[in-house]
Write a structure and sequence with these properties.
about 30% helix; alpha/beta; about 325 residues; three-stranded antiparallel β-sheet; eight-stranded mixed β-sheet
Length: about 325
């Protein structure tokens, strides 16, 4: 990290931001720039890689290295950038279509390999750039231009996919919730290995209100729980509700009812190796449960790019590097005159 203090404006480019008025991408862009300033890695040591889609325009608006790549290939190219230039802080920006449909294979393997990438997945449950087709995260029965009678598919749940690929870091935020967005993005950057931040993002044109239950401050107070490592899992407008274990599942309880006290409430352990409870928390949804926000899982594990460079060093000790000419001239050679 640099000793120089940065501000959000240091990461803003001079390009006009071309998203629809009211799009959640605007808010996420501001949060990301604030998070980058807090992390303190210089713009010239930062790279932002994206695929195709509305959110994938984001590299144009960053004062950093940027690469607007091809559809679904952001994770593959970001992996190459990180392995080739490990000193860079690499952010990958993907939408739910770009990242989980055509890019789904690259997504799960970047996580499985634990490449040191900060994957920001903007989930508006729709294809916005191509004008309103259903996406891999659209709910069953969703009516869209490509499913006029409703989808007959069950959606991917990003947390479930991440955990299934042995993900070590998963967090969630809401696009317009600036403080929590900055907090989880900073935590993502400070995590070594593949980190996934799911951003519940609104598409004002084609899927307006897709995250309406948590789109306002009042809604989040009623319908969301902010998870913090080492703190009891309390939520509600007055922190009057909590989560307890019931069998192999979870249940919502009210403090003071049936003898329940704060001491009975589960304490969040984001660093637990066993992902069972983390997954249950990440998959909670209304109306029976609050939607989990914040850092849900944050577990240490060897990073792919670091392991690759360590392996190279070990091999070089046993087999000192030679020049290209020495390699070409090794073995049987002949000279043509």
């Amino acid at each position: 990290m640099s000793e120089i203090k940065y501000a959000a404006k240091d990461f803003k480019s001079d390009q006009y931001v071309r998203w629809c008025p009211g799009c959640g991408d605007h808010a996420l862009l501001n949060s990301l720039q604030r998070a980058m300033a807090e992390v303190g890695v210089a713009p010239h040591n930062t790279a932002v890689i994206s695929g195709i889609g509305c959110s994938s325009r984001l590299p144009y608006y960053m004062n950093a290295y940027g690469f607007h790549t091809i559809h679904g290939r952001a994770a593959a190219i970001a992996t190459g950038v990180k392995v080739a230039k490990p000193e860079l802080l690499v952010w990958q920006i993907s939408g739910d279509g770009d990242g989980l449909a055509i890019g789904g294979n690259h997504f799960i393997h970047a996580i499985r390999r634990n490449v040191n990438l900060n994957i920001v997945l903007l989930n508006n449950r729709i294809y916005g750039l191509t004008k309103g087709q259903y996406s891999p995260t659209s709910p069953r029965g969703y009516v869209s231009k490509s499913s006029p009678y409703g989808t007959v598919e069950d959606p991917f749940r990003p947390a479930e996919l991440t955990f299934g690929a042995r993900g070590r870091f998963f967090a969630r935020c809401v696009d317009v919730d600036g403080p929590n967005s900055v907090e989880v993005l900073v935590a993502s950057a400070r995590h070594t290995g593949a980190s996934v931040v799911e951003v519940l993002q609104n598409c004002v044109i084609f899927n307006d209100g897709c995250h309406s239950s948590v789109a306002t401050k009042e809604g989040r107070a009623k319908n969301a729980i902010y998870l913090k490592h080492g703190e009891p899992m309390l939520f509600g407008e007055n922190q009057e509700f909590g989560l307890m274990q019931e069998g192999f599942g979870l249940k919502v309880v009210k403090i003071g009812e049936n003898g329940v006290t704060v001491e009975d409430i589960l304490v969040h352990d984001a660093h637990c190796e066993d992902a069972t409870l983390h997954l249950k928390l990440a998959l909670m949804e209304g109306p029976d449960f609050p939607i989990a926000l914040g850092v849900i899982r944050d577990v240490k594990a060897p990073a792919y790019d670091e392991a690759v460079h360590q392996q190279i060093k070990e091999v070089q000790v046993k087999k000192p590097a030679r020049t290209l000419r020495e390699m070409l001239m090794k073995g049987d050679v002949w000279e043509i005159k």
